Amino acid sequence: MQVMVIGVTTVEEQVTHIAQLAETVEKLQKTIEEKDMEIAVLMEKLEIQHGDDSEKATSRQDCQHNQSSIWRSLSRYVTYSKPYTKRLDNLRMPTGYQPPKFQQFDGKGKPKQHIAHFIETCNSAGTDGDYLVKQFVRSLQGTAFEWFTELEPESIDSWEQMEKEFLNRFFSTRRIVSMLELTNTKQQNDERAVEFINRWRALSLDCKDRLSELSAVEMCIQGMHWDLLYILQGIKPRTFEELATRAHDMEFSIASHSRRKDEIVESHNQKRVMESLAITTPVKITARVKSNNQNKLEPTHDQTRQRTLRELEAKIYPFPDSDVVDMVENLLQNKIIKLPYCKRPEEMHRINDPKYCKYHRVIGHPTEKCFVLKDLIMKLAQQGKICLDIEDDVAQSNHAAIIFDQLEVVSSTPL
Predict the structure, then answer these.
(1) Quick one: angle between helices 193-204 and 213-221, nearest 10?
(2) CB 360 within 8 A of CB 340
(3) What is the Cβ-side half-sphere exposure of residue 373, based on CA atoms within 13 angstroms?
(4) How many angstroms separate the CA atoms of 148 and 106, rounded?
(5) Integer angstrom CA distances of residue 309 from 229, 299, 306, 320, 325
(6) What pLDDT band is residue 297 in, cutting at 50, 70 and 90?
(7) pLDDT in tens, 264-285
(8) pTM score over 0.85
(9) Residue 126 — left, alpha, or beta (φ > 0 → left; ψ -120 to 50 → alpha)?
(10) pLDDT tens digits, residue range 66-91?
(11) In the prediction, which pLDDT does 292 show?
């Protein structure tokens, strides 16, 4: 059996084509064998039937005719025939033509893109029009090559017809992206800004709705991390190039600031540890004595249980509330205590409010009623870091003060 192979450029391509044709021939031979078995069964049935000799002869002739028809229909599969007409087969390639290396299509992917790439490759090599039909097989492999070999012989008479048949057989598997999917695409926790922008941009190219670059940039910003989103909405970049540059710079700045903050916190923690190990000299603080209170600094048995807020506010201390403001100022001036973190920064500077606490720097209770501060003063006194100089009500001093000849003090973290 002679097999005709369309001109190929390399030995590897010839081997590939021959192997594919051999596989096709093997399938056809199996089909022929099955048909032969069917014919044999029919012959046996005809011989078993009774009738006159003329009817038997006619039946045999019909059977032979059917067998010959089957062979004729299968002969075209056994011997390869080109699917294009003799007119196209007789076309001669231009002088000096060198077959280019074609991109291969195996039945998957995007058929329209393959057609466009094939035409551009042929045009670059100096061929176009009907000449493309004879070269098209060079760009096919796998399932697509099998489709080409199974086309009806001499059924293609132009490149337009070949292109139409090809596109009717193979379909694009490209997924269409909706606007809903684009708006729900968000930057992942460990994803860098530029990586998210590139991922979002690639996804938007498959969107069925056309977006201007400005609209696409604005939609992309909505999917970014909140800190970047807040700043970029104020900057309003107009192109993806500007968006990627701005986002990268801001992300780098935020990361640097976070690292500096961690270093500062670590430095403060180390400093506090060193200060807690230092030997402190008690600072003497004077305060008036309340007439209804005994001068005892030791905690009572009632202080060992958890107290309610009302009990904490009603607690009696060995110094009057009016001295608390001056006492906290002296403690801060001599670096005995440090102010805690302000939970409401917007209230930090409202010092004229009657319910402003100078220790917590928030609006809620006056400094004189801050039992947290009073407990801190009592604890410092119990630890020997300060000395309360308790005076009688008739004393000339009307406020707490620090004795400045004992200022060699290293501050410690308030508990």
Answers:
(1) 130
(2) yes
(3) 26
(4) 11
(5) 42, 18, 10, 20, 21
(6) very low
(7) 666 666 666 555 544 444 555 5
(8) no
(9) left
(10) 666 655 555 555 567 888 898 988 88
(11) 47
How large is the angle between the packed helices 324-333 and 371-382, nearest 10 degrees?
Answer: 60
130: three-class secondary structure by DSSP: coil
Hunting for tokens 């002739």 — which residue is that?
61
Mean pLDDT of the chain: 76
- Token digits of residue 398: 């009307």
One DSSP character per residue, 205-260 reads TTBSS---HHHHHHHHHTTS-HHHHHHHHHH---SHHHHHHHHHHHHHHHHHHHHH
Residue 126 corresponds to which tokens in the numbers above? 């100096």
**Do residues 126 and 162 touch, judged by C-beta distance below 8 A?**
no
Contact status, residue 317 vs residue 412, Cβ threshold 8 Å:
no
What tokens appear for 334 in the block? 């001599």
- Identify whether the C-beta of residue 413 lies closer than 8 Å to the C-beta of residue 276: yes
AA letter at 283:
V
Q: Please count the other Cβ atoms lying within 10 Å of the Cβ belonging to residue 17.
A: 20
- The residue behind tokens 């807020």 is 309
HSE, CB side, 13 Å, CA atoms: give it for residue 158: 3
DSSP 155-196: -B-SHHHHHHHHHHH----PPPBPHHHHHT----TT--HHHH
Residues whose CB falls within 8 Å of the CB of residue 40, separated by 6 or more in sequence, listed in order: none
Give the integer Cα–Cα distance in Å for 350 and 361: 8
By C-alpha distance, which of 167, 162, 139, 138 is closest to 151? Answer: 162
Which range among 221-235, 246-260, 378-392 shows the weakest confidence by mean pLDDT? 378-392
Reduce the DSSP state of residue 320 to 3 states and report it: coil
Residue 195: DSSP 8-state = H
Instruction: Summarize pLDDT for 128-161 with one digit per residue, the tens.
Output: 888 888 889 899 999 889 899 888 888 999 999 9
63 contacts 42 by C-beta, under 8 angstroms: yes
Work out the average pLDDT over 231-239.
88
* 204 contacts 178 by C-beta, under 8 angstroms: no
Q: Residue 404, Cβ neighbours under 10 Å: how many?
A: 11
**List of residues 6+ apart from 200 with CB closer than 8 A:** 182, 185, 220, 223
